[in-house]
Design goal:
This protein is of the alpha/beta class. The protein folds into two domains: about 130 residues, Aspartate Aminotransferase, domain 1; about 220 residues, Aspartate Aminotransferase, domain 2 (3-Layer(aba) Sandwich). Helix 8 links the parallel strand 7 and strand 8. The longest helix has 25 residues. A seven-stranded mixed beta sheet has the order 2-10-9-8-7-3-4, sandwiched between helices. Strands 11-12-15-14 form a four-stranded antiparallel beta sheet. The model has no long low-confidence stretch (mean pLDDT about 95). The chain is built from 15 helices and 15 strands. Helix 5 packs parallel to helix 6, helix 5 packs across helix 11 and helix 13 runs parallel beside helix 15.
Length: about 400
């Protein structure tokens, strides 16, 4: 079956955060939004079919989660990552962010420390602070080409109040796919100092060849007992609006403590359509997913080539995973405020401002390429024209 990822889908008037809030966010309807991490592609057909079939029943009362839901999750992770997951390890969350919030609440108390490897996905900062904890930064090392973990710094900042580290794997926004050796070094340090690893792996399926994602818990039983893996089909299959995620916890003690937080927040079962969509996606979506990765790979090649040949003043940090690109704008010689205004007011392109990911991101912008190549080309040509005027 063929899928058209090149089709330009009109998402306006659908309560779409990305497209229906352009004027509100940027003050101008002409801005091309390339910020929030969802895709402009129509979802996999079997997901639509499964939801339509359920609607034909016409009664949407209370439901339970069937075994087939868990089987689909288990099969997907076994096939893609050779990771053996058991049903009882899987806990529902209405998203990875709410899941991480409950995790912090479950295993910390006010005043404890949580380590973030910055620049990093911006909601993490708020989640830590909302739970009364302190953010401790373990900045990634940027050599002008790629980012690496700073293990020496990591070990030096751990104190007797450090309870956990939130690992972003693959890393958002810098696009790193951590190697098994890197993850082993990280895991050994955390075992040594009794620091829990919370691994956000929501982008695990969006990996470019020849890179390979390693699920942190799959490395060893010891690591599995000292980690929590946060997953969801939302990025892979563009169903974030259905708010379905899975928090996978092998350690029985940690699992029971997490259950207490779910009960406190009255989080028990996914909504009927979220459960159906995930099961359909993981059971029948591989062909669509393969087509998606081919299209994203071509989008990435097109974008890299455009920046290198036509906008060399902006350096694209080549991603190993995710459909989010990290743009180094240092050579534009602007401060963070002027940089943001340049893209919005001059170029009429809406990226995520790098400063929201931490101080280390101030001279950067985050760009989403999960859209039609026509839109990407339009955005890049706008940027090219304005950069050439500087």
């Amino acid at each position: 079956m063929m899928y058209s990822f090149e089709k330009r889908v009109d998402r306006s008037n659908s309560n779409c955060i990305k497209w229906d809030t352009v004027k509100e966010l940027y003050g101008c309807e002409e801005v091309i939004p390339m910020w929030i991490a969802d895709m402009d592609f129509e979802i996999e057909p079997s997901i639509v079919k499964a939801i339509q079939e359920r609607l034909e029943h016409s009664v949407l009362g209370y439901t339970f989660t069937p075994n087939s839901y868990y089987d689909a999750v288990i099969s997907w992770f076994k096939k893609r990552f050779d990771w053996n997951v058991e049903k009882e390890w899987i806990k529902f969350s209405p998203g990875v962010v709410p899941g991480v919030n409950s995790i912090i609440a479950a295993y910390t108390k006010p005043g404890d420390e949580v380590i973030l490897q910055t620049p990093v996905y911006h909601p993490f900062y708020k989640l830590v602070k909302n739970n009364g904890c302190q953010v401790i930064e373990n900045p990634l090392i940027y050599d002008g080409e790629k980012y690496d973990m700073d293990f020496e710094n990591l070990e030096s900042i751990i104190t007797d109040r450090t309870r956990m580290i939130i690992l972003c794997s693959p890393h958002n926004p810098v696009g790193r796919v951590w190697t098994k050796d890197e993850l082993k070094k990280l895991g050994d340090i955390c075992i040594k100092h009794n620091v829990l690893i919370v691994s956000d792996e929501i982008h695990a399926d969006i990996i470019y060849k020849p890179y390979k994602h390693t699920v942190f818990s799959s490395i060893s039983d010891e690591f599995a007992e000292n980690s929590i893996i946060c997953t969801a089909p939302n990025k892979t299959f563009n169903i974030a609006g259905l708010q379905t995620a899975n928090i996978i916890i092998k350690n029985e003690k940690l699992r029971k403590e997490f259950d207490i937080q779910l009960d406190k927040h009255c989080v028990h079962e996914p909504n009927v359509f979220g459960a159906i969509a995930q099961e359909a996606a993981y059971s029948n979506g591989e062909e669509w997913y393969n087509g998606l990765m081919e299209y994203l790979t071509e989008n990435l090649k097109f974008t890299i080539d455009f920046f290198e040949k036509r906008i060399p003043k902006i350096k694209l940090v080549k991603p190993e995973g995710t459909y989010l690109l990290w743009l180094d704008c240092t050579n534009l010689n602007m401060n963070a405020s002027d940089l943001k205004d340049f893209f919005v007011k001059k170029c009429k392109v809406g990226f995520n401002d790098g400063s929201m990911f931490g101080i280390k991101g101030e001279m950067f912008q985050r760009m989403n390429i999960a859209t039609s190549r026509e839109i990407i080309k339009d955005a890049l040509e706008r940027i090219e024209r304005e950069v050439n005027k500087l």
